[in-house]
Design a protein that fits this description.
Helices cover 38% and strands 29% of the residues. It is an alpha+beta fold.
Amino acid sequence: MTDTTHDTPIDDPAIPQADLAVPVACNRTDDARRREEERLRLALQAGRLVTWEYDPQTNTILRSENSQDMLGVPRDDLVSAMARVHPDDRRLVDAAYRPGGALSVEAVRYDHPDGRRLWLSTRSVEMRGSDGRRSIVGVTFDITERKEAEERA
């Protein structure tokens, strides 16, 4: 086989073979990453949960892509999401965002923009980056079906 742009055989010993293998290895890594991301997306959707990271220094949040569907607000919109938490439950959510705050919120009411009342539960961990910056990383579960079953029982 000949490289038509340079008329140099591909199996020429002057061409380092490792250089030819790098794109293949990168493609395999990219493929593995895409498959892993797809599995995570499916798990989040099937489990009716959203992952997120909150930065208290900037008061910003970034949620997983499925958050728009579950919560009905943009994935980076902290203000709109907090406004939809039932007023009697906001103190529970606020506590989770303070230094040393609660890292587990068992159940809060959330008013979805489409009119549904959701029940949400949150688990999170406080983390510090190598630069010492604090962030909170967590997952929010939709527990509406469980709460409705409890209310019927």
